[in-house]
Amino acid sequence: MAESESSLVAAAEPSLKSLRQWQRLSPIALLYFTVNLFRVIFGNVAYLAPTIILLYQGMKNQPLLSLAILLGIALVLLTGALLSYYMYKFRVIGDTVEIRSGVIKKKQLNLPFSRIQNVRLLQPLYYRLTNHVCLQLDTAGSNQQEAKLVALQQHLAQQLQQEIHALHQTTNAAEVTEDNAEANTPVKADEQLLNQRSIGDLVIHGISNNRVWLMLGLAAPFLNLITKVVTDQLEKLGLDLMQWFDPEQQSWLWIGMAALALTLMVMFLLTLISIGASVLSYYGFTLVRSGERYIRRCGLLTRHEVSMKLARLQWVALKQDWLDRLLGRCNVRFEQINAPMNSMQPGAEQGKIMVPSVQQQEAFQLLADAQPGQQLTTTPFQHVNWRFLARQLLLLWLPIAIASQWLLRPDHPELATLGLLPLAWLAAMVLLRWRRWGYAMDQEFIYIRKGLIGIDYYSAPVFKVQQVKLKQNWLLRRAGLCHIQLVFASGALDVPFIPKQHGQLMLNYCLHQAQSSGKSWM
Predict the structure, then answer these.
(1) Can you name the residues that pair with 286 across neighbouring β-strands?
(2) CA 55 – CA 259 distance, rounded (Å)
(3) Which of these, 108, 340, 392, 453, has the minimum number of CB atoms within 10 Å of its CB?
(4) What is the pLDDT of residues 36-94, one digit of tens each?
(5) What gap in Å lies between CA 262 and CA 15, rounded to an integer?
(6) What are phi and psi of 386, to 5 degrees?
(7) Max CA pair span of the chain
(8) CA separation for the pair 315, 4 (Å, rounded)
């Protein structure tokens, strides 16, 4: 291993010598800075909504002035991108990446290889013709510790990635492969293929994991404008929605059927958008294992490659929404030490690796590969105490039931009786949530189960616990119960309403294993 790493560094060294002097990026980086500025602006579209609406109204009244304003805005953005490109310089000297950037606020970042936890290669669509990539270097810290070389030749980026991995002594020289987003991504001889996702799998993921409500939130400031435009277009087609829902012209049965049809149509369109987002994010998904490192590659427009050392893995989560259960699918999440994340990129999490919409047997195989000693599928779970159910019913269900019946029963007894149906449904959901909660522990792992209609399972090594908490209020003390919280480097796992003796034993054992096991949590 040492000889292969030494030969790797020696092979990479001649090409990397060209990066030792301060230099600017390739001119193709202008596109990156321009796109980034647009992303920042439109990412805050909710704050800019009044200005955009005024501009839209102005285009109808004074089109030439509005066009001049738009051209001025575009010129400002291009000028900002040009200045960002001109002020960006970098070099790789020794085992340190140094970056100078900033137009108004100057910044210099010195990032030693030893502090780099993840090396990511991203290749946006506009980089493919020139064979450039964006090299992103992540640490376990905050966004202030994130470095990007936004336009490197692909062979230089790969050699730099190899040298960083060789320094960490985690994999051999062949660990780094080209970022490829084809549906059948080739796997090299020293890589073990763990999972691939087909287009059909991604369609299922888009159907069962709908996140389009985020887009609806962004579109909220334009709701009136969108409604007007859609209504005008429907009227041109001879469809008058206002007439459909006018109780003076239509029966209540017709209005109900029309509302149902409209809801189904909207849900269908949103599902299509969700499927499209799933394919864009996860197209060509391939998860391989090279030594003690997982490598995930995916992406249609922007190709992503994310690698993760297994030593950094904190827990594995198997997540099923209600549609996942209906379709027999599961999302597997490998949670590692918190790293900078971009929540607006659902398929490209930097601190996590997720395998979307796998079948149950595939999920168990992935879990067994990542955590060979776990017994999640055979360990019996213990239920949390029934007082969890009582708390939910007393604090949530009972006040709603009393208030609704007290307000409706005297004047509208039929409506009050009908209102018992959603109350019964709510009580059933509370009962189901209580039944879902479960916990278990063996000598190496702690297991947690929770959910509502769907079910989430967590499997975490006990020696990786960073901090423990035991919580009690006076009601819990009287009942001999407690809440426990286990804090890992990737977040916290909670178990409510368990016997205090169980909680203390679990926490003491976790602390003992963290101190005496001699294993590194990262």
Answers:
(1) 196, 297
(2) 34
(3) 108
(4) 777 766 655 544 555 555 666 666 666 677 677 778 877 877 888 888 888 888 888 87
(5) 61
(6) -65, -15
(7) 87
(8) 31
Six token digits for residue 345: 């990129």
Q: What angle do CA 155, 161, 162 make, to 5 degrees?
A: 90
Query: Using the 8-state DSSP alphabet, how is residue 127 labeled?
Result: G
Determine phi and psi for 364, rounding to 5 degrees: -65, -35
At residue 348, the pLDDT reads 41
Q: Running DSSP on this structure, what letter comes out for residue 406?
A: H
Tokens encoding 512: 């003992």
Question: Which tops the pLDDT comparison, 403 or 194?
Answer: 194
DSSP 212-275: THHHHHHHGGGHHHHHHHHHHHHHHTT--HHHHT-TTTS-HHHHHHHHHHHHHHHHHHHHHHHH
In three-state secondary structure terms, 128 is coil
Q: Is 448 exposed, middle or buried (0-12, 13-18, 19+ CB in 10 A)?
A: buried
> Looking at the chain, how many residues does it have?
522
Q: Is 354 left (phi over 0), alpha (psi -120 to 50) or beta?
A: beta
Q: Are 61 and 187 in contact (CB under 8 A)?
A: no
Contact between residue 442 and residue 307 where contact means Cβ atoms under 8 Å apart: no
Residue 150 corresponds to which tokens in the numbers above? 């936004």
Rounded CA separation 235/284 (Å): 42
Indicate the domain borders of the chain: 2-181, 204-281, 390-429
- Cα 224 from Cα 10, distance rounded (Å): 63
- Residue 356 in contact with residue 285, Cβ under 8 Å? yes
Percent of the chain with pLDDT over 90: 23
Residue 387 has which token pair? 């007082």
Helix axes 45-61, 29-43, angle to 10 degrees: 90
CB 366 within 8 A of CB 211: no
| Degrees to nearest 5, angle at CA 372 with 369 and 376 | 100
Ranges of beta strands (E only) in 300-442 are 303-309, 313-320, 329-336, 352-359, 382-383, 438-441
Distance CA 30, CA 402 (A): 63
Q: Are 334 and 316 in contact (CB under 8 A)?
A: yes
Residue 303: alpha-carbon gap to chain centroid: 16
Residue 94, Ramachandran bin (φ over 0: left; ψ between -120 and 50: alpha; else beta): left
Residues 6+ apart with CB under 8 A from 383: 434, 435, 437, 438
